[in-house]
Amino acid sequence: MEKSRINRINELARKAKTVGLTPDEKKEQQRLRKEFLAVFRMNLRAQLDNIDIEEEDGTIVNLGEKYGDKTTH
Fold this sequence. Notes:
Layout lengths: L2 H16 L4 H27 L2 E3 L5 E3 H5 L6
């Protein structure tokens, strides 16, 4: 996610705490938050897909292969 979008999220959060947001700004804030969460989840999933765990019996299991087929978070 671009730094400018993160800065905008922070600006809207500060404004919401001080003077409040207009309806358009609330919609923009919701849209930006959803976009941020989608990018965050995608990055987290990519990290988890690259983790290998060695089981007690010595086999190595990749978390992405073991849990990657789930459709919900």
